[in-house]
Amino acid sequence: MTSAALERATFRISEQDLEYMVLDRAELPPEFAGYQQVRVGPLDNENMAAHGFTGSTAARFREAGRITGYMREFGPTSDMNVFDGFNFVGSTVAHLFDNPESVTGWMTDVFLKDFESNVGESVGEGHQLISVDRLEPSGFFDEAVAIKAVQGGPQGVVSSTVIDFRVGRILGVAFVGAVGNHDRLDLAGQLALALEKRIVQVVLGAI
What we know:
Low-confidence stretches: none
Number of strands: 7
Mean pLDDT: 96
Order of helices and strands: HEHHEEHEEEEH
Oligomer: single chain
């Protein structure tokens, strides 16, 4: 299937299809063996804004072309030892947009811009965004961008590696959080590529 044909096929996707795109526990990399599902469900613009940077609003996200999303997140069980370098969360999200151009705009004008413009600012719960570095993801069907963000708080430093990629009018996101200042591009890449494969499977199934 050509890129253009796959892009057209994503217009057959509805909000109800998104939950079948995010990864289940069995599809996670071995690094997350034994982890439990901690959050799952729809992610509308109101929820996105409530947990976003200062100034985020549902209206802004809708104007950017975002319709809604669905997320599934995994974290450690209570008997796991937490240490520097420990991966405390892994999640995947599928977002539905009006059109492919909106996805591209979101990746640059919302995702990258919001993170980079908030370095040094408070990000809630006593945390401060210390630094944001762009990374170079590879192996994706279409556009992809990535960052490593480091934030500090009362309990020390944590880092987040996030990859955004486009499949037509769908935005896939893979996220890995680690204790300390650590680059998790390889692990986040494994999550993201598995998510991309899953998204394509669902899209092709809708044709």
